[in-house]
Specification:
Layout (H helix, E strand, L loop, with lengths): L5 H10 L7 E4 L2 H11 L3 E5 L8 E4 L2 H12 L7 E5 L4 E9 L4 E9 L2 E3 L3 E4 L4 E4 L5 H21 L6 E10 L2 E8 L6 H5 L7 H10 L13 E8 L22 E5 L2 E4 L2 E4 L3 E9 L2 H11 L16 H8 L1
Antiparallel strand pairs: 1-4, 2-3, 2-4, 5-6, 5-10, 6-9, 7-8, 9-12, 10-11, 12-16, 13-16, 14-15
């Protein structure tokens, strides 16, 4: 419910005082277009339903916003859009485990949603992530107390005992952290960056969450940092090419490769989706983690592979200040 309907999630946040962007929900195209004329741009237009991370348009002008509304609402089956206030700041992600009674935040991370360097190009399901993201303790405290706990308690007040992973996609604004989206699972590619740093047994944690036994559990993390770089197929996100032969040598120490959209054709490994491989570097700090990930990229991949060359740049800049 919190992930499958942005309209439901926004209503829940409104009812329980969770900080988020101002918004309106529309099913009728003309009403949505009139509202856009009223509020102007920049503005954010979201498909209310599941869209594999690609149903969001950050419109810098009214033409782009109107086109997004028409695309989402003009189909024969209709649809629902959420039109949101444009927020400024740094994006970050905080995930947490909960059994409905206990809440355990994971390390903060940062996803990179746009296809191209410099946060240009279309929105995607995620082109890379770094962890931990340098978030100050006061902001982390506010995320836990003003966002994560109110969500769990708000759901409980509405008859839902939430057990699992809470994913809070955040904008760190001047007024404090605000929710861009909630997901009900480990984020992708945040999970690829986070989980290699986790020292706890993930199966044991999952069982405690499912059985309501998370109380008293402490999370333990490895020293250092990790960086995930996504290799996407040419044509992603609109029409990714499939069936491209992949070259995948054994990764060196400090590098992991996760399969995202691959399949076997006989003995051959080929692409089978938009985001194909995730290369993760681990290091004593974020700089070393990025260096290891990017050093391996020339050795792995496929013709026409698309990847960002600036993953982690904003986090490094934040660390330097």
């Amino acid at each position: 419910m919190i992930e499958g309907s942005k309209a439901f999630a926004k209503g829940l946040m409104e009812r329980y005082g969770i900080p988020t962007a101002r918004y309106r929900v529309f099913q009728e195209p003309l009403e949505a277009l009139e509202y856009l004329e009223e509020v102007g741009a920049p503005i954010v237009v979201k498909d209310s339903g599941l869209a594999a991370g690609k149903g969001v348009t950050v419109a810098l002008d009214l033409h782009q916003a109107k086109q997004a509304v028409i695309n989402l609402l003009s189909g024969p089956e209709g649809g629902e859009v959420v039109i949101e206030e444009y927020l400024e700041g740094e994006e970050a992600t905080v995930l947490a485990l909960t059994d409905g009674k206990t809440l355990l935040p994971l390390l903060s991370s940062q996803d990179h949603k746009r296809l191209l360097d410099g946060d240009q190009g279309p929105m995607t399901g995620g082109m890379g992530a770094v962890a931990p993201y340098p978030m100050d303790p006061e902001t982390l405290r506010r995320v836990e107390e003003e966002i994560l706990w109110p969500l769990v308690r708000g759901l409980e007040a509405e008859g839902v005992v939430y057990r699992g992973v809470v994913y809070a996609g955040l904008m760190l604004t001047r007024e404090g952290p605000k929710v861009l989206e909630f997901n009900a699972r480990f984020g992708d590619p945040e999970a690829q960056a986070l989980l290699p740093l986790l020292e706890n047994d993930l199966v044991d944690l999952a069982l405690k969450v499912a059985e309501g036994r998370l109380g008293g559990t402490r999370l333990s993390w490895k020293e250092g940092a990790s960086a995930c770089v996504v290799l996407a197929a040419p044509g992603y996100p609109e029409s990714p090419r499939k069936g491209i032969p992949l070259h995948l040598p054994e990764p060196p120490e400090g590098v992991l490769v996760f399969h995202a959209g691959t399949r076997k054709e006989g003995e051959r490994l080929v692409s089978a989706g938009g985001r194909v491989l995730n290369v993760v570097g681990l290091g004593k700090d974020l700089g070393e983690a990025l260096e290891r990930a990017y050093a391996f990229l020339p050795r792995v991949g496929f013709p026409g592979a698309v990847y960002r060359r600036d993953i982690g740049r904003r986090a490094l800049a934040r660390l330097s200040t």
